[in-house]
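Hello support,

Our group uses your service weekly, and this is the first time we've seen a run hang past the timeout. The protein is Phosphate-specific transport system accessory protein PhoU. I'm not sure whether the cause is the sequence or the server load. Input pasted verbatim:
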Amino acid sequence: MTGEHSSKQYDMDLETIRSKVLLMGGLVESQFQDAVSAFRSGNVAQADQIIKADENVNNLEVSLDDACSHLIVKRQPAANDLRTVMATIKVITDLERVGDESTKIARAAKSISERGVTAINHYETIRVMAASAGNMLHDALDAFARLDGKQAIKLIAQDEAVDHEFRSIMRALITFMMEDPRTISGALDTLWVAKAIERIGDHAKNIAEYVIYIVEGKDIRHTDYAVSRLDERTAS
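Update from on-call engineer: The timeout came from a worker crash unrelated to the input. Re-ran successfully.
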């Protein structure tokens, strides 16, 4: 009975942590959407709010890391349970970094607005890429919430599209700067935003990889596992 009680308490503790991780995920997802919105509109007040809101994300990271550490010490999980906790800690780190990248976007939006830079259409340059990365982040959080390995595999393959879009944006911005030096300042700001969005796609991919680690027990980082699995399903 003692073992059963301990197991139930562990499940309750882990579920509490998972719920808070999803809360943190919701915060950073909104932070990213708001940052892109501020970049589109040039709303300095909104950009300031996003920058300030990052404190909440940072505080959640510290709180959740502490909760995970206490869970390991108190419950001493083994095998699958320990794998779940360790992967959750990594998800928390990636979410905090998404918040950092969103803050970078907000700072760029504020900088462009305050300097009155209008030589290029900044938002249109990153619009498609931002939508793709936003969808990846949303799907990654959904896969984590449902521990859906199949969705995680599909999501990982999408990261190449975001990387390709970043390379296209970089080439276009370099062309702008070469043809018209007046675009240099705004193009550089937009390039930093595009890089932040590309990194958000990377963090979404990382979360998907941790979902597969939890579900299948396989560490697929730096491998072509997801691509090979998709190829197998296509062939069948």
